[in-house]
Amino acid sequence: MIKAILIFNNHGKPRMSKFYEHYTEDTEQQIIRETFHLVSKRDENVCNFLEGGLLIGGSENKLIYRHYATLYFVFCVDSSESELGILDLIQVFVETLDKCFENVCELDLIFHLDKVHNILAEMVMGGMVLETNMSEIITQVEAQDQ
Amino acid sequence: MREIMVRAMYCEMLGYDASFTYIHAIKLAQQGGVLEKRVGYLAVSLFLNEGHELLLLLVNTVLKDLQSTNLIEVCMALTVVAQVFPKDMIPAVLPLVEDKLSHPKEIIRRKAVLALYKFYLIAPNQVQHIHAKFCKALSDKDPGVMASSLHIYLQLIRSPDSYKDLTGSFVTILKQVLGGKLPVDFNYHSVPAPWLQIQLLRILSLLGKEDQSTSELMYEVLDESLRRAEMNHNITYAILYECVKAVYTIHPKAELLEKAARCIGNFVLSPKINLKYLGLKALTYVVQHDAKLALQHQMTIIECLDHSDFTIKRETLELLFRITNAQNVTVIVEKMLDFLRSCNDEHTIIHLIGKVAELAEKYPFNKPEFMNTLLPMKYNSWFIQTMNDVFSIGGDLLQQDVPNNFLRLLAEGSESKEEDDQLRLYAVESYLTVLKGHTSHLPQCFLQVMSWVLGEYAHLQESVDRREVIRLLTQLLDQRSVSSETRVWILSALTKIPEGQTDLILDLAESLSSSQDTVLRQQAQELRHLSQDSQLREFKPVAVVCVFSSQVDSSLSFLDGFVSEALAAGAAPYKPPHQRQEELCEDRALNLEPYSFSLPVSLSSCSITDRQSPTLLSVSSGLSGNSAELSQKAGSSTLILEGVKRVWGKDGYLPQKEATAPPVDEPSAAVQPASQQEAAERIEPRPEPSTQNQDKQQLASSLFVGLGVGSSVSLLGKSEAPPPRFRKKPRPHESSSSSGTSKRSSDSSSHSSRNTTDSFLYGSFPEEEPATSISTFDHTPKSTTANGLSQNKDTKEDRHANTSQILGGDMVIVRPSTIQDKHPPSVSSDLTALLPADLKDLPHSDVISLTSDPSLSLSSCRLFRDEALLLVIFISNCTETVIKDVAVQLTCEELKVISFCCKLFEFMRLILMNSILSVIHRPLVVTTEEYGKLWLSLSHDVKQNLKLLTDAGDPLRTTLNALKDALQLHVVDIIGSEGIVACRLLSGAPCLLHCRVNGAALAMWLRSPHPALPDFILYHCQRALAHH
């Protein structure tokens, strides 16, 4: 199960956060900060996985992240998810965003937060992967925009 | 409004409080058009959590939208239901969501499946009835719906037994996916439905675990996927990885294993860092089955150890931890400590340091292999040094059990006293050295350990002046950074260091007696008195209680009296939490029913309609009464508890004050900082930072030493499980219980009080409860010949001595060394013939042999008389010689010995009347008509399905007879598939049981005027049938 999905920029400013488990407001902020610290100090040429060592959960959970230009996409998942699978899911998510916003950039996320959430809701529902097919996601999102 | 809500979401995300908008989010979801509704729902799912009270306001909207004809609204409602929905409200929407499973649109079916899965996660017992529908979703014609149902199965199959029959379907699905039968839409980078494949592989590995026949079904398809997944893309590697894991999880097949091993090799050797990581993970997983694989890749592993990536390093260490054996442990521990020193992530430290400690304690120096590489002396210094590192690196992040275990190892020691003392000596020496250096940076927990060890064992080191030790410890006290808890540890250490240095101690006590901390002040006072009064000090070792051999009455039998009194007074019997939970859920389900039928029902009308029957209400009130009663129980039984505490020892196995402080002899000079020297001349190759190939080779050989020997079983660090360095002494509790008893005690600890009541009521004597209650109730250990005096090591020794004092020198003391072994049942059944005439006709239990020794054997049986329970104890003389005199002493405050007659030769009988035992029920003899009348007049009823005994011809009759024998019930009548049974309490309250065969179960319906009685009887029926 996916526990949380975070997007923040190179300076640690959150651009989107979605938690599938309940945390208090303060904890959520702390998680974002901590995750940023962990992720940002890693080189480009190291692996995309980070284990344990997080407020978000003991050794059971792990972080899977990707870095695109100015944004970090971080998924926090438990042991029931496949690491590489999630890595590709991030790719799918980003490609979908790219198609929906036509060349997505950080500003799109800021000004269309609701749309980002809607796209995400079509991919991941309550922590479970719902749909991985890009065109299907786009169809659903567009249907709702009418 | 929409725009504003989006801004509010943004603010909330940045961490500002926007709680004032929550209600507007709900309003937006309720009132807006589709677009507004969407933002409203989105905001709600971001703002509110499952327990938030505002969510109640949303329930109605969700219900309305679920019934809407607009697909988009239904979708949104389903999404929000899966995201945040209060647990209590699930019954309200459940039927609607279930309906959606057969919706024509597949997207809705998919979302409904996921929503149901979410419900299953939150409240599994509420969706039990729809498992069949999950099955239907699995066979849905739309692959998407099928894919989402896999989430559910992945969860359900964690306990695979009931899903084995689905293996075939999953294999077929996977075959179809592999064969490209799915629409092209599902392809991702021209791989057919990769995520689906991953999930299927996981499910298969769960199903095939340790099950050969199931595994055989999937060999073919696994082979196929291994073969297919050979393209160069991330997602194929993901599938491969799952495949490899599955191959190693299920029942092994050589051919597949070989292929999988090759895949792992590819992973590990891959230049892509992510794949390397996965390869290491797979290796970690696989070394448990096949350690040789690690051997093949040793050079790669060595390289990974020096990798710049933190995650890779960590994973490598994890792998090394798994392959640790007695020969490479020092090198591996060294590596781990190196890593820890450079690491600053809290969780990683906690995680790894525990493993280091585990390794250090696991490998004993007296094992032959270890002797080859390290001498015992070296081991000692290595062990202490490693633990020092553990404490100073881990510091106060350490979990409490690490220092506890360490201290216990030191204190309890192994078999040989000499070795123990050597180890302790090393510890003392090394700590003195540490304390002489800078101490301000040391973590509190390390200081505590040091002060304890110095207090206990400083006397072993004869070369050190005791004044020096005291000086070092007092120095610590003066430091500001030392916490008050540590101060207390230090003070108690000082208390233990024996007399002679009165002046120093007095100074110290003086300065501390004005301390702010009351505990410290008290300790200082004690210390002063102790050092002034030499008589008191001499007395101290005598007053020592050995805490280690103390016994714990985990069955809480001392509460039995109270429990049964409470039961007799009408309290509800204890229900285990899961049972309570179920009943509460039932209640709740009833409460909410009206919701699902009509939408606009207000809450108030709801509460009126849900008044079911008075009986249901009384059940719930009984429940709450029960919990209140429980807490009261805890309060009112403090007197008894206090008694127990003393046996148990407040400090557990960490004796602070009680521990012995034997006087020390002449101190001498010459301090040896031995440990450091020892550390320096360690023979292990220390890996150089410069990564010369030769160094690596050397390192590899030291790391993988022992792995190449061949037989895979002995290679595994994990499964090898060498005897712990110091064998922990078996808990007295365990040692005292015989085979039968231990089963019982583990059983009784799980649902405590009720069970023990029971065992008391049915007081079969070989059980440990009576025995422990004797020793817990009165502290002067008089004891008995008759009763199971549990044999504990040390404490029992002096009890033993006491007994013989009381009884006189020529007594034979029979202890329950062998229970039920020596006596074949035929012998003991003969004994009932010896019963006196007036007792012969009473119903009686089987004769149970309690104990025996070559000269005497003891057995007992219970006789059920109308007004009392008789306990007959048979003492038989097994020898030829005549026994002149038998003294039997039964000690238990709860049992009043009324008559006590002693015959000289074969047996005697004791009639015990017990106030507690009055709760025991008797058969109630009534006719069927009387039964019918009585039935109607009784109010409290309980229904439950019980197991039916099916081993004989007539299951009902067999079952009832079994119950009758076990529980002293009266079978009134058996008509067709129904039977009626009656019993009553000694006090007269009847309990009627109505039993009906219902398929393979026995539907039992109990009624009684006494609210607690049906539960009580039912419980015993369950037990009796389970034991049958």
Automatic annotation (TrEMBL), chain A:
Stored Pfam families: Clat_adaptor_s (PF01217)
Signal peptide, first to last residue: none
Ranges of residues in domain AP complex mu/sigma subunit: 1-145
CDD domains named in the record: AP3_sigma (cd14834)
PROSITE patterns: CLAT_ADAPTOR_S (PS00989)
The keyword tRNA-binding belongs to this UniProt entry's keyword annotation: no
Functional note: Part of the AP-3 complex, an adaptor-related complex which is not clathrin-associated. The complex is associated with the Golgi region as well as more peripheral structures. It facilitates the budding of vesicles from the Golgi membrane and may be directly involved in trafficking to lysosomes. In concert with the BLOC-1 complex, AP-3 is required to target cargos into vesicles assembled at cell bodies for delivery into neurites and nerve terminals.
Protein name listed in UniProt: AP complex subunit sigma
Biological source species: Cyprinus carpio
Lineage: Eukaryota, Metazoa, Chordata, Craniata, Vertebrata
From TrEMBL, chain B:
Biased composition (Low complexity): 735-753
Keywords per UniProt: Golgi apparatus, Membrane, Protein transport, Transport
A cellular component term, taken from the record's GO annotations: endomembrane system
Protein name, entry field: AP-4 complex subunit epsilon
Domain of life: Eukaryota
Signal peptide, first to last residue: none
Region (Disordered): 656-698, 715-807
Entry coiled-coil feature ranges: none
InterPro entries per UniProt: Adaptor_Complx_Large_Subunit, AP4_complex_esu, AP4E1_C, ARM-like, ARM-type_fold, Clathrin/coatomer_adapt-like_N
Stored SUPFAM superfamilies: ARM repeat (SSF48371)
Polar residues compositional bias, start-end: 772-792
GO process terms (BP): intracellular protein transport; vesicle-mediated transport
Function of the molecule: Subunit of novel type of clathrin- or non-clathrin-associated protein coat involved in targeting proteins from the trans-Golgi network (TGN) to the endosomal-lysosomal system.
Quaternary structure (record): Adaptor protein complex 4 (AP-4) is a heterotetramer composed of two large adaptins, a medium adaptin and a small adaptin.
UniProt keyword Ubl conjugation present: no
UniProt subcellular location: Endomembrane system
SMART domains for the chain: AP4E_app_platf
Gene3D superfamilies in alphabetical order: Leucine-rich Repeat Variant (1.25.10.10)
Topology with respect to the bilayer: Peripheral membrane protein
Transmembrane regions listed in the UniProt entry: none
Pfam families documented for this protein: Adaptin_N (PF01602), AP4E_app_platf (PF14807)
Residues annotated as domain AP-4 complex subunit epsilon-1 C-terminal: 922-1026
Family: Belongs to the adaptor complexes large subunit family.
